[in-house]
Specification:
Helices cover about 65% and strands about 0% of the residues. By secondary structure, the chain is mainly α. The protein is globular and about 35 Å long. The two termini are about 20 Å apart.
Length: about 150
């Protein structure tokens, strides 16, 4: 993944604001995720606050490694394997991307189509593409779907 200095700076600065109000950010993310994909709600436990904190921590790890793609790839592969065990399928990744973009907008970090949003989308697409590819063989053949096209993503 190749991000410009400006894109990296935008992602890092916006993540600082997300991390500063992690509970609100996580609540926005999961509220939106369950609105657009109620079928994924059973994949999560009752403690969404704890799940939200895990989300923000995971985003923090990704942001901290954003310029070290090789290290980030390894972390993403581990994360992807765990998500397969939770029942995550390739078609879930674009839905998560939509919830992520919503959270960023609602936290007043980006305007629709703005530079920060575009940088997050670029980074998320690269990361989710890698996660999907790294677990392709782990997904049961009956659950396999075609890789979502870019137009289906956001």
């Amino acid at each position: 993944m190749k991000l410009s200095i400006r894109e990296v700076a935008g992602i890092r600065a916006s993540f600082e604001r997300i991390a500063a109000d992690a509970d609100q950010a996580g609540e926005l993310f999961y509220r939106r995720l369950f609105e657009i994909a109620p079928q994924v709600r059973p994949m999560f436990g009752d403690d969404i606050v704890q799940q939200a904190r895990k989300l923000i921590n995971t985003l923090g790890v990704a942001v901290s490694m954003i310029e070290q793609w090789e290290k980030l790839e390894t972390a993403l592969e581990d994360l992807a394997r765990r998500h397969v065990d939770y029942g995550v399928l390739p078609e879930h990744y674009p839905i998560v991307g939509k919830a992520l973009v919503y959270m960023i907008r609602e936290m007043s970090l980006s305007r629709p189509g703005g530079e920060i949003e575009a940088a997050w989308i670029k980074a998320y697409e690269a990361m989710s593409d890698h996660m999907i590819a790294s677990t392709r063989d782990a997904v049961a053949p009956a659950a396999e779907t075609s890789h979502p096209s870019k137009s289906d993503r956001f």
